[in-house]
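tool=predict chain=A
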Amino acid sequence: MSNDIITKVKRAKSASIPAASVSGVIKNRALAAMAKALDSNREKVISANKMDIAAAEKLAHVGKLSKSLVKRLKVDDTKIDEMIAGVRDVLKFEDPVGKTLSALELDGGLELYQVSCPIGLIVSYLNPVLMSFHK
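tool=predict ok
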């Protein structure tokens, strides 16, 4: 399990640099594809979630998970609709990557800029989708 996490973190780090140069149009295509995939795969998601819930309930029964956490893990059609709406909401925003958030002149000719950059872990999972649109 921990090796899997380490591998994912390493992929996230390496994906963040090329993803920063992907255009907002391509990112938006990827987000639209994610929303569509959620909608068209909702039965698979719900089915897989039922198995996750069953495993979580066993953990809750022995005191390793709270019942409230198990309840929050449940995915149904309503929750998938909310996920899709959330992804589509992000499509409405301007791409923040590379935007100057603040600037400060420290000395003559020496300026400090705060520039937004992608969140690596999210980008790690999006990277294969983003690259497929980058043709």
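Helices lie at 2-20, 24-40, 42-61, 67-73, 77-91, 120-133. The chain has a mean pLDDT of 83.
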